[in-house]
Amino acid sequence: MIKRLIALIVIFMGLYYIYDNDHFGSRQFVRDLKKEIHIPSTNTYVKRDIKSSFVKYTDNFKPTNKQELLDIYYTVVNSGWDKFTFYCNYEECIEDVNDISVNSSLLSNINSFVSTYNQYDTISTYTTPYLNAKVTLVLKRTYDDYTIEKINKRIDEIYEELELEGKETEEQILIVHDYIVDNVRYDKYKIDNIQDNTYFSNTAYGPLFQGYAVCSGYTDVMALFLDKLNVTNIKVASATHIWNLVYLDDKWYHLDLTWDDPYTDSGMDIMNHNFFLIDFEKIEAWNTGEHVFDRNIYKEAL
Q1: Distance between CA atoms of 156 and 154, rounded to whole angstroms?
Q2: 3-class state of residue 152 by DSSP
Q3: Most CB contacts within 10 A, which of 124, 253, 267, 290?
Q4: Mean of the pLDDT values across residues 179-185?
């Protein structure tokens, strides 16, 4: 009888420990779930030098608010992880996850703050319907390993051809800028026919191997050269356009190769330097209609 009573007391205490928590779930369940979080190794393209007010690199995978959730999304993309699972840790978490996961504009801006090779084409969010919900992010990258290897080899070759070693940083950037503009044409057909795959002009492959680019292709290839030159850089995206932002001498500058390589109906090659390392006041003065960006996201660009 005494043994049975003791057993009942132990069971009761165990149940009390499990269920004596707020309505969001048990401490023991939360603890067990948190043990399951696996942190993969970051790849070699992770960026840690960007001090962004929009998102930040985090090792906190126990979110307590929506911003911390967004930081997790950013960290997963920035780290080069193809899949990552974490668990909700506050009452409105799943609602916030759902808000973020369907906001393609918000998520696409994350690509501006990561390495070109770590940016994604698609990011899918899967959740479980119970309390302490499990959240899994699955990504499809823009660049696969084979393409990265091929692009890196070509960039190294061009770096040697242009004899960039030993030159001042701004001169190096100018030489690369002029090389790309000289050797690449704006792929107007791609813009008019978004499904056309004649050229991979929306990635760095198009300008490097096919000689055609749209704004994302110009921006990606320039970003890769800036990384090669060890120049801190991010990208700025508007509703219709994307370009580079470069950090030199403790200041951010706009760099837009697309607008420096204008399309002409005659096919004539034209090179401009109107958008070469200019500040916010100058790019705003151009009033192109395509350089209007979200100032809350891209505070560095101001």
Answers
A1: 5
A2: helix
A3: 253
A4: 96
Tokens of 164: 């960039």
pTM of the predicted structure, to 2 decimals: 0.86
What pLDDT, in 10s, does the model give residues 213-259? 999 999 999 999 999 999 999 999 999 999 999 999 999 999 999 99
Tokens of 295: 């100032």
Which tokens hold the place of 119?
A: 């940016």
The domains located in the chain, with CATH, are: 36-141 (no CATH), 145-301 (3.10.620)
* DSSP SS3 for 153: helix
Look-up of token digits 């030098």: 49
Q: What is the mean pLDDT of residues 6-35?
A: 40
CA distance 282 to 240: 19
Query: Cβ distance 31 to 25 under 8 Å?
Result: no
| 290 CB neighbour count, 10 Å cutoff | 17
Q: How many alpha carbons lie under 13 Å from residue 283 in its C-beta half-sphere? A: 23
